[in-house]
Design a protein that fits this description.
Layout: E1 2-6, H1 10-21, E2 27-32, H2 37-46, H3 49-52, E3 57-62, E4 73-76, H4 92-109, E5 114-117, H5 122-133, E6 140-142, H6 145-160, E7 167-168, E8 171-173, E9 180-182, E10 188-189, E11 192-193, H7 200-211, H8 213-221, H9 227-241, E12 246-255, E13 261-272, E14 275-279, H10 286-306
Parallel strand pairs: 1-2, 1-4, 2-3, 4-5, 5-6
Antiparallel strand pairs: 7-10, 8-9, 10-11, 12-13, 13-14
Helix pairs in contact: 1-9, 4-5, 5-10, 6-7, 6-9
Bound molecules: nicotinamide-adenine-dinucleotide and (2S)-2-hydroxybutanedioic acid (LMR).
(2S)-2-hydroxybutanedioic acid binds next to helix 8.
């Protein structure tokens, strides 16, 4: 098994570190356009192998795509992160060019890979990758819901005073400050609906804090987050390479599911060796359906911006 991570910045390096620690592949390639950064981080990570006891062989490359040849899974994190006060959508102008160029280069050397897209605005970058590569829809997956759902579980755990691991909670829709939809009605604490334990005010607070989770961290850190994004991405890679069939909220191409067509948006999917294998219908109520349609409209207008670049 061979995995490539493009972009050896904060998220790419953290994702690679998680992949190596979990020994998800024999060969892991980090690639970056900035001279030396991928080689340096790859060596630094390899120098933890003796301490952590993993066998994955990590190498770095400055923009040499031949080194990525025959990857089974490719994670694309290349692109600018936002600064405090910015939205993810404001990154589209720069990141669209970066993601398109990277995806085309990767495809030349790894035509059979499954692509995971991280760069923001992620829903539109996933749609762009699908268009630019012409890959079958099951092999292009955007990472957003895995992260947002983990943040949702964190926020719930803070109010319930419990372990995030005991909570089951999913965020669907777009990966944007106003487009994501934390499905609190369906969230459970060891099978019991969390709404039983939380006031309406608490529920609204949890939803709001989840939706601006990325913006809150960006304000605190000065750039966007990487620990949870890296771990969320590695959990998707794990479900692919171990064919776990985990049910994860991911950004995938919709052809009528959840009432939407010709758009990539976050929905619950089964992730396995073939990429995303099946969309699961969560039977949204009228209010949730309306929120999903609104989210889709916002993402669609960002997709339209691609035509103007
Ligand atoms: N989908 C999500 O949930 C999620 C989560 C966190 C971050 N992000 C996004 O991921 C992206 C990366 O974030 P980060 O914090 O790692 O940023 P970063 O600046 O730390 O790293 C980005 C890296 O990409 C590299 N790069 C730029 N252009 C490249 C190219 N053409 N080819 C190869 N490498 C190139 C840069 O040199 C840099 O090392 C941002 O767009 C950010 O918004 C998305
Ligand atoms: O917030 C960001 O801009 C980065 C990422 O999308 C996140 O949610 O952490």
């Amino acid at each position: 098994m061979k995995i490539t991570v493009v972009g050896a910045g904060a998220v790419g390096a953290t994702c690679a570190d998680n992949i190596a620690r979990k020994e998800l592949c024999q060969e892991l390639v980090l690639l970056d356009i900035k001279e030396g950064i991928a080689e340096g981080k790859a060596q630094d990570m390899m120098q933890t192998a003796a301490l952590l006891g993993f066998d994955t062989r990590i190498t770095g490359s400055t923009n040499d795509y031949t080194k990525t040849a025959n990857s089974d899974v490719v994670v694309i994190t290349s692109g600018l992160p936002r600064k405090p006060g910015m939205t993810r959508e404001e990154l589209i102008g720069v990141n669209a060019g970066i993601v398109k160029g990277v995806a085309e280069n990767i495809l030349k050397y790894s035509p059979n890979a499954i692509f995971i897209i991280i760069s923001n605005p992620m829903d539109t970058m996933t749609y762009l990758t699908l268009q630019a590569t012409g890959l079958p829809k099951h092999r292009v997956i955007g990472m957003g819901g895995a992260l947002d759902s983990s943040r949702f579980r964190y926020q719930l755990s803070q109010h319930l005073g419990c372990s995030p691991a005991d909570l089951n909670a999913v965020v669907v829709g777009g990966h944007g400050d106003t487009t994501m939809i934390p499905l609190i009605r369906m969230a459970t604490w060891n099978s019991v609906p969390v709404t039983k334990f939380l006031s309406a005010e608490q529920q609204q607070q949890i939803i709001n804090d989840t939706m601006v989770g990325g913006a809150t961290l960006t304000k605190l850190i000065g750039t966007s987050a990487w620990y949870a994004p890296g771990a969320a991405c590695a959990s998707m890679v794990e479900s692919i390479v171990r064919d776990e069939k985990k049910l994860i909220s991911c950004c995938v191409y919709l052809e009528g599911e959840y009432g939407q067509k010709d758009i990539c948006l976050g929905v619950p999917v089964i992730i396995g060796k073939n990429g995303w294998e099946k969309i699961i219908d969560f039977d949204l109520n009228e209010e949730e359906k309306a929120a999903f349609a609104k989210s889709a409209a916002a993402v669609r207008s960002m997709n339209d911006v691609l035509k103007t670049l």
